[in-house]
Amino acid sequence: MSPSRLAEIAVCYIDRSLPPADRLRFLVRLLTCRTLRRYVAGLRSLAPLVGHAPRVPPPPEAARRILRFFRGWDPDRRRSGAPPDGRLVA
Which domain covers residue 15, as residue numbers? Predict the structure, then answer.
């Protein structure tokens, strides 16, 4: 499993949005990997801070660039879930 996919699953684990079978598999991985436990602990400490961050819309030009960049992106096409060319900055 790629590190980016594992990070995505860790966020879902913290949000309690993983299906029960996936949650159990993640817990087994968590029990056997100290690095992953540290990563999840770090995410848990950030979660309350992010929840209180003000919601600020991006500047119009940035929003247009982001939307243009992801137009036609099919996240199921690539297992990693990365944008078409792997870059966010166009």
Answer: 3-51
Helical H segments across the chain, by residue range: 3-15, 20-32, 34-51, 60-70
pTM of the model: 0.54
Structural domain contains residue 87: no
**CB count in 10 Å sphere of residue 13:** 20
Tens digit of pLDDT per residue, the chain (90 long)? 788 888 889 989 998 899 999 999 999 999 999 999 999 999 898 877 777 777 788 899 998 988 888 887 766 655 444 545 555 444
* 8 in any annotated domain: yes
Cβ contacts of 22 within 8 Å, gap of 6 or more: 9, 12
